[in-house]
Amino acid sequence: MERGRRTATVEDVRQVCLSLPGVSERLSWKQPAWFARTLMARMWDEDSLTVKSAEREALAALQPDIYFWTPHHESSPLLVLVRLACVPQDELAEMLRESYRLAGALPPTV
Q1: How many CA atoms, within 13 angstroms, populate the side-chain half-sphere of residue 70?
Q2: Alpha-carbon distance 110 to 29, whole Å?
Q3: Which of 18, 19, 22 is CA-nearest to residue 32?
Q4: Which of 3, 43, 83, 103 has a CA between 20 and 30 Å from the CA of residue 66?
């Protein structure tokens, strides 16, 4: 981790997710999870977050210290795990917005 950079937390994830239109929070597999039309993000454990990304292979190849997946995620090619202690805040927010789009972003209500 870069000196002076704060580690991302579940509260950071919650803040970004709940700022997106129509996102709700509930437990999934006893972990905090955020839903648009479908699951957009879920805490995998206290240190890692599951999100959706069309770039899973490239992310894990270029930044394996941040992005990875487990055998559990092998059959779901959009799912990637993010190490919260390693991901920059702006990159985390970007990943969550992409996951929101892939999960079926809800249109704003009028």
Answers
A1: 9
A2: 34
A3: 18
A4: 103
**Sequence-distant (≥ 6) Cβ neighbours of residue 49 within 8 angstroms:** 13, 41, 42, 43, 81, 82, 84
* Amino acid letter for position 55: E
Output the six-digit token pair for 40.
Answer: 């957009």
pTM of the entire structure?
A: 0.88
Distance CA 65, CA 46 (A): 16
pLDDT, one tens digit per residue, over 30-82 is 999 999 999 999 999 999 999 999 999 999 999 999 999 999 999 999 999 99
- For 77-109, letters b (16+ CB in 10 Å) and e give eebbbbbbebbeeebbbebbbbbbebbebeeee
DSSP string covering 26-94, please?
EEETTEEEEESSSEEEEESSSSEEEEE-TTHHHHHHH-TTTEE--GGGTT-TTEEEEETTTS-HHHHHH
